[in-house]
Design a protein that fits this description.
Beta-lactamase, 35% helix, 7 helices, alpha+beta, single chain
Length: 175
């Protein structure tokens, strides 16, 4: 039987950038296992103290940082994506707002529905923030911003890019 550490190492060798597992047995003893890197840009090693995206839980933190920046006057609900990210060919950016992104009313295509992500190998490939946003914006909008609700992971990736542009820092730093 392979150990957890062996499995994590195997996953990293197969292309996963990094992984972290925390275990706790019935006696309360806990262990941390890590492999790979926590940051593809700096190649900082994964440690038990590393901060990284944790699926949809990250959306809560992204929303909090966005709301803090709104409260501080650095952002506003009515700011458009065009104001902050004019270089991105995002559909409807001239009237797509931060509020639309926060409230899941953007109409953007959800990058997780891109057919290229359906293969098993796609789950091991490292994706940067700009990669997943491009997957989302390379498709037509699903509807006009504000006209209806639809859960969309792309929204919060775009918000993260706006946070980075507004603060000059990564989301991880702002947290």
């Amino acid at each position: 039987m392979h150990s957890i550490q062996d499995e994590l190492s195997r996953m990293v060798q197969a292309g996963l950038p990094g992984a972290f597992v925390y275990t706790k047995n019935a006696d309360g003893a806990s262990q941390f296992f890590t492999a790979g890197v926590a940051d593809l840009t700096t190649e900082r090693r994964m440690t038990p103290d590393s901060r990284y995206r944790v699926g949809s839980t990250t959306k809560t933190f992204t929303a909090v940082v966005t709301l803090q920046l709104i409260a501080a006057g650095q952002l506003a609900f009515g700011h458009t994506v065009q104001q902050w990210l004019p270089e991105l060919p995002i559909p409807n950016t001239d009237y797509l707002t931060i509020e639309h992104l926060l409230r899941m009313r953007s109409g953007l295509f959800d990058f997780v529905d891109d057919p290229s992500l359906l293969s098993l190998d796609a789950n091991l490939k490292p994706y940067r923030l700009h990669d997943v946003v491009r997957l989302g914006i390379n498709h037509p909008s699903r509807f006009l911003p504000g006209s209806r609700f639809e859960y969309c992971n792309t929204n919060y990736c775009v918000l993260e890019m706006i946070i980075e542009r507004a603060t000059g820092n990564s989301l991880q730093h702002e947290l």
